[in-house]
Amino acid sequence: MKNLVIIGGGTAGTAMANKLIKYLPSDKWKIIIIEKAKEHFYQPGFLFLPFGYYTRDQITKPAKIFFPKGADVINCEVDRIYADKNLISLKDGNSIAYDVLLIATGTRISPEDTPGLKGELWQKSVFDFYTIEGAEALARFFKTWEGGNLVINIADNPIKCPVAPLEFTFYADEFFTRKGIREKVKITYVTPMSGAFTKPKASKFLGSLLEKKNINIVTDFFLGEVDNTNKKILDFGGREVPFDCLVTIPLHSGDPVISKSGLGDEFGFVKANKNTLQSVSYQNIFVIGDASNLPASKAGSVAHFQADILHKNILSFINNEPLKASFDGHSNCYIETGYGKGILIDFNYETEPLPGLFPLPVLGPFSLLKESRINHYGKLLFKWIYWNILLKGRWLPIPSKMSMKGKITD
Questions:
Q1: Is 348 within 8 Å of 402 (Cβ atoms)?
Q2: Calpha distance 272→313 (Å, rounded)
Q3: Is 3.40.50.2000 the CATH classification of the domain at 2-108+253-318?
Q4: Domain 110-251 has CATH 3.50.50.60
Q5: Which of 12, 241, 309, 343 could form a disulfide with 288 if both were Cys (CB 3.0 to 4.6 A apart)?
Q6: Rg (Cα) of the chain, in Å, rounded?
Q7: Is the peptide bond before 322 cis (omega within 30 degrees of 0)?
Q8: CB-based contact 47:229 (threshold 8 Å)
Q9: Are strands 95-97 and 100-103 parallel, antiparallel or unpaired?
Q10: pLDDT score, position 410
Q11: 135-172 burial, b if ≥16 CB within 10 A, otherwise e?
Q12: What pLDDT does residue 403 have?
């Protein structure tokens, strides 16, 4: 009996387990999932919590109900991967041998890596919404806050769900407008990028939306320090932005075990081939989702598209065949813009977000790089898709490779 071990039972790891168990003969292969958490969060829902749209119970389910029958699940933390020995040591003292290893350890925020960020104002005037605890603390704060300088700051890239900070900003504009205190809230979006987004067309469109909503934008700002005493953030060049409430998207890093095991880049993300998703150092190690150093968005849709590619390559590897399936960096993201509207962007390694219709060239029904109500409903529908299709590794009528159908290139 051979072991295919998956480290990480989040979005990517769970989806891959459900895909692979359909193709690996149970009399020859055992799938082992190592995941310490017993709760599974619908992480896109964290964005909604501060504004009262969801509660914790509405975005939380037991992790075990999504793991495939027949897989062994170990609720423990990995201590180290000994890739030269095909061995994993656990923090409970046990070890697991593997024939094929799939790393799906995701990414985490590291506020402690920025001086002053996790200081005396943490979860008092400084909040994140990338964790359930941060989102809930911010929800409590917003219930009684009467206004001031609201600063949304991205410390640096890469981050999980790159559009989430923009969505938060748009939602804040609507939230405080409906509360009747928008004129008392000065919203400033502070980013290390040269515009609202990484891609030119999308950046121009999203930047115009920020301006339309009277939201200030400060660009090329790389967070160096948070001054808790004077309530301001400073970049490495000495620029300052004052805040009364700071919503931070802190530095992100890979799971510490990746660096400890010598498999990561400088941020702790697994170094892998951007097309095959195979480790550049060990042929029997693969990576999926946020854990990789691929130049693709760290988003749920990306993990889904990668899973379609990766399960073919893993099967090819097991059968001593060339890895022919190729991931093109496909990402598909809904961006909530407030007031019941949203934007959809669809892009990959080579092609930036373009206007048009999706997924059908004439019928749509979703519009690309344009605000619409149906895009907002698409975002809401994704929660059901996530629980019932994406996590279970089921087929979606969207190709894993990006299509140019319906896109306007002029």
A1: yes
A2: 13
A3: no
A4: yes
A5: 12
A6: 21
A7: no
A8: no
A9: unpaired
A10: 78
A11: bbbbbebbeebeeebbbbbbbbebbbbbbbbbbbbbbb
A12: 95
Task: Please say whether the beta carbons of 96 and 56 come within 8 A.
Answer: no
How many residues in total does the chain contain?
Answer: 410
Could you give the angle at which helices 164-178 and 200-212 cross, rounded to 10 degrees? 10
Residue 216 pairs in a beta bridge with 188
Residues of the chain within CATH 3.50.50.60 domain(s) are 2-108+253-318, 110-251
User: Along the chain (410 residues), what's the average pLDDT of each consecutive run of 10 residues?
Assistant: 97 97 95 97 96 95 97 97 98 97 97 97 98 97 97 96 96 98 98 92 94 97 98 96 98 97 96 98 97 94 95 97 97 95 96 95 93 95 94 90 93
User: Token digits for 308?
Assistant: 């379609």
| Of the candidates 249, 248, 288, the residue with the CA atom closest to the CA atom of residue 269 | 288
- Cite the DSSP H helix spans in 240-392: 256-260, 300-318, 373-385
Look at residue 396 in the predicted model and tell me its pLDDT: 85
Q: Which residues contact 353 (CB under 8 A, 6 or more apart)?
A: 199, 201, 202, 345, 346, 347, 368, 369
Pairwise CA distance, residues 250 & 180, whole Å: 30
Q: What 3-state DSSP class applies to 397? A: coil
Pairing of β 245-249 and β 126-127: parallel
The confidence score (pLDDT) of residue 340 equals 96
96: tokens are: 């697991």
- 5 by Cβ neighbours in 10 Å (0-12 / 13-18 / 19+) ranks as buried
